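Data availability (excerpt). All sequences and predicted token strings are deposited with the supplementary files. A representative entry, DUF2059 domain-containing protein, is shown inline so that the format can be inspected without opening the archive.
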Amino acid sequence: MRKFILGFLLACTSITCFQPPAKAQQNDSIAPEKKEAILELLEVTGAKQNLEVMASAMRENLKTQIPDITEPILQEVNNALNYDSLAYIIIPIYAKHWSTQDLKDMVAFYRSPLGMRMMKEMPAILKESMAASMQRGKDLGARLYEKVQQLKQAQQDSLPSKNEVEEKQPLSDDI
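Structure token line:
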């Protein structure tokens, strides 16, 4: 589990900290009006606040999963999950899937009373959802571990005992 988590952290760090020139060129090719609309959408949807909630939950989970994790590693997690890196990665994706008008319409929705309420509730919803998902994952892991142990035991029980094996082998005098 530790290797998986550390691998995940390394992947997050490498994805967000080392921004390849191709992405920079891709971001530069996006029309300024469209890029501005994307950044405005990220702002009104609370992307920064949601990211901070997610990073905080991930940090607490790491502390639980790896009690001896060091503060510098936790700081790397925070650095890897910063808003600028998120925006840098998301802008070309949003630009690919949404027109400038679509983006402006979404901004208008999120500035509406319902959109604002949705954004107000979303951090708590994300935090609760993440906690529930982590608990479900732990429960599933425990059940799977138990099932594997039962299967191993059943397999062990089906093997012949040492005495049964010796009884079936012919004695050298009988040959």
